[in-house]
Amino acid sequence: MAQQVAEGVYFIQGQDEFIPDSHMYVIGKPDSKDLSLVDAGLMGKGDYKLGSIDSLGIDFAAIKRVIMTHTHLDHIGCLAEIREQIPWAELWVHELEARPLDSGDERIVYGMEMFKSMCMTQYNLKPGSFRFRVDRRLHGGEELELGGISWEVMHVPGHSPGSIAFYDRQRRILIPGDVVYADYAIGRFDLHGASGAQHKESLSRLGELDVDILLPGHNRIDANLPPGYIADTARQWAPYLV
Ligand SMILES: [Zn+2]
Ligand SMILES: [Zn+2]
């Protein structure tokens, strides 16, 4: 399923299997010819994601880059499939997850050893499947002008070390990756490189933003977020985030 959420912001719903498939967002005004894909998805979902982009009437030639909110398997699994069809697309990742990707260190991708062996068997993955050259390293604090829309990049570690969120201050839209979801849920904080204390701090920073439209990495999106929603979520989870 694919739909426009706001002008120049499109939502492509993940198709969960026994492992979740992350949502993908396409950002940028179509006439800008400067579109970005935010996250890819699970292994085997490349055709579905690209087909959904096509069904929106988006010309692949306008896609200039893939930006990862973070590099967990359910977000980066089909990146190679997507780049096979859009080989000119750059890859932008936070510096803390760019380094492992460049060097083929897959600990963050898989999150834990048990999960790694299970996935490698299930999806017939070889070691080194998630080695990518990163074209641009993000740090947080950037103000990116992407396809005619301005996005603030925030480094929000905790769920993973290089998690980033994208915030459109003018339209109060937040793309938080797996840091916070709808329905008072948050991302897990027990995987490789995760930190409950950092997660707490990131949630409280996101809680300071005015957000009407929440576009998380999984589960439902919320285009009519109650005021103070993220701050309330942060408060509810604070006792568990140490
Ligand atoms: Zn994740
Ligand atoms: Zn995820």
Please tag this protein with its features.
alpha/beta; 7-stranded mixed sheet; 8 helices; 242 residues; binds zinc ion; 21% strand; 5-stranded mixed sheet
Give the secondary structure arrangement, pairings included:
Blueprint: E1 2-6, E2 9-12, E3 24-27, E4 35-38, H1 46-55, E5 63-67, H2 73-76, H3 79-85, E6 90-94, H4 95-103, H5 107-110, H6 113-122, E7 136-138, E8 143-146, E9 149-155, E10 164-168, E11 173-175, H7 196-206, E12 213-214, H8 229-237
Helix pairs in contact: 1-3, 7-8
The structure holds zinc ion (ZN) (2 copies).
Explain briefly what this protein structure is.
The protein has 242 residues and is an alpha/beta fold.
Task: Describe the model.
The chain has 242 residues and is an alpha/beta fold. It is 26% helix and 21% strand. The chain contains 8 helices and 12 strands. It has helices spanning 46-55, 73-76, 79-85, 95-103, 107-110, 113-122, 196-206, 229-237; strands spanning 2-6, 9-12, 24-27, 35-38, 63-67, 90-94, 136-138, 143-146, 149-155, 164-168, 173-175, 213-214. Helix 1 (46-55) crosses helix 3 and helix 7 runs antiparallel to helix 8 (229-237). The chain is globular. The structure holds zinc ion (ZN) (2 copies).
Our Rg estimate from Cα atoms comes to: 17 Å
Bound chemical compounds: zinc ion
What are the low-pLDDT stretches, counting only 5+ consecutive residues below 50? none
Largest sheet: 7 strands, mixed
Count of DSSP helices?
A: 8
Overall shape: it is globular
Average pLDDT figure: 97
**Straight-line N-to-C gap:** 37 Å
The class by helix and strand makeup works out as: alpha/beta
**Beta fraction:** 15-25%
Order of helices and strands: EEEEHEHHEHHHEEEEEHEH
Strand order of the largest sheet: 1-2-3-4-5-6-7
Counted beta strands: 12
- The portion of residues assigned to helices is 25-40%
